[in-house]
Amino acid sequence: MTLQAVDQRVVLSLGEWAVSKDPDVELVCLGLGSCIAFAVHDRLAGVGGMAHMVLPDSTLGRATSGAAKFVDLAIPLVVSEMEQMGAKRAHMKVFLAGGARMLAGVAFQEKMLIGDRNREATEKAMKQLGLRVATEDTGGDHGRTVQLHVGTGVFGVHSGIKDRKAAAA
Asked: In angstroms, rounded to a whole number, what is the distance separating the alpha carbons of residues 11 and 130?
């Protein structure tokens, strides 16, 4: 979804994405566990985008429920939409958060490590597009809430463990 001067705070639910040029918009993902928030900002173009990605690969489920649900579809989608709004890949700064191991125990080993698999898929999709991570807060066993302020490019990560901010500079 492309945003044009909407609500100041845009909260993305599971599998949702947004791109905006409105400097007053803040893109937010609440309560990330194994999901990954892919946030990207182009300071020169004044464009920011975010996706709340749930699963690593669209072949694992029905892609009809929203492209941003899947890492392999969400990242190219957000980048393409940002480029249509004037952003350039060479100027994009990428922030990642989430990908935690929220479930423990023998039953959740290997195949069920969705957070790890989401992070690996994110790295692969970014590499295919020539993007690199500027700031990352992934893994662990705790949830996170993140926000990207489109006007400033400041990316914030909040959790019960630590709070972090990174400017898009």
From this structure: 27
The SS3 assignment for 64 reads helix
Task: For residue 35, indicate whether it is catalytic.
Answer: yes
Q: 93 is written with which tokens?
A: 């700064």
Catalytic residue among 35, 82, 97, 166: 35
pLDDT at 101: 87
> What is this structure's pTM?
0.87
- Give me the domain span that covers residue 102: 2-166
CATH number at residue 160: 3.30.1330.200
List pLDDT tens digits, range 5-26: 445 899 999 999 999 999 999 9
Beta carbons of 53 and 122 less than 8 angstroms apart:
yes
Give the 3-state secondary structure of residue 99. coil
Whether 75 and 38 have beta carbons less than 8 Å apart is answered as: yes
pLDDT attached to residue 3: 46
